[in-house]
Amino acid sequence: MRFKTMEMIGYLSAVAIGVSLGLIGGGGSILTVPVLVYLFGTDAVLATGYSLFIVGITSAVGAVGYLRKGLVSVRTAIVFGIPSIIAVFLTRAYLVPAIPANVLNYHGWIMTKGILLLLLFAALMIVASYSMIKKDTSPPSSDTALEPLHFNYPVIIAEGAIVGTLTGLVGAGGGFLIIPALVIWSKLPMKMAIGTSLTIIAAKSLIGFLGEMGETSIEWTFLLSVSLFAIGGIVIGTALAKYIDGARLKPIFGWFILLVGIYIIAKELFFAA
């Protein structure tokens, strides 16, 4: 009975992940791995791979809606996306498999590969929570008016590669890093930054998932069922975005992510079985 209850909570959480992606363009994907690990009992390393597919397919559905409204900068997505896609694919295909099963043995306490990835993930969650909680002091921009694009190519390419590597390691989309970069470095309006971010996340996550193919047996029925719930969530979130200001929800969501990150660190370091 407890297992069924946790499963139900897991599927509801998948819907919430999609809703947050639809409302604020990021943040929700960072909950995918904890949901898979702690609610569905998925192995941590496998969960980072599954997360790429769930986040990728969900973001792709959300990106289509923004694309139809003309709220995706294709040129920006290409400039940012290419180094990110290359980095995430190489990370999943070569870096993650190269990490040893037992990374550290400290006085009988063994840090496994799964624990290492969860701790990296928790650290990323704490960083993400700060970016969501802090007040945005930048002047408000038009939702649709697009200024001439001025690319700082070295910075954008470097950040794309960094975000791609992090995505490959921990399975998070990285929207909380991508959106500020698009607003600051490419001068995109917020809604266009969200649409472009979803496009980049979809491309790099799904291509990164290809690096998973052949490495492990994939439970497609389970993976597709969770993805369908998340897709339902992003459809709901995109519809709600017309009436709800996602910026007002970000600090609340940020505090929640902070608590989850602290919980993961405490559980894996101090309360692991």
Give a short synopsis of this structure:
The protein is mainly α and 273 residues long.
Helix content: over 70%
Q: SSE order, as H and E? A: HHHHEEHHHHHH
End-to-end gap: 22 Å
What is the rounded Rg? Answer: 18 Å
Q: Give a short account of the largest sheet.
A: 2 strands, antiparallel
* Overall tally of domains: 1
Low-confidence stretches: none
Q: What structural class do helix, strand and pairing data support?
A: mainly alpha
Tell me what portion of residues adopts beta-strand conformation.
under 5%
Widest sheet, order of strands: 1-2
The best one-word shape is globular
Find the count of extended strands (DSSP E, 2+ residues).
2
Total number of helices: 10
The pLDDT mean sits at 80
Topology:
Elements: H1 2-24, H2 32-39, H3 44-68, H4 74-98, E1 102-106, E2 109-112, H5 113-133, H6 153-170, H7 175-185, H8 190-210, H9 220-240, H10 246-270
Antiparallel strand pairs: 1-2
Helix pairs in contact: 1-2, 1-9, 2-3, 3-6, 3-8, 3-9, 4-6, 4-8, 5-10, 6-7, 7-8
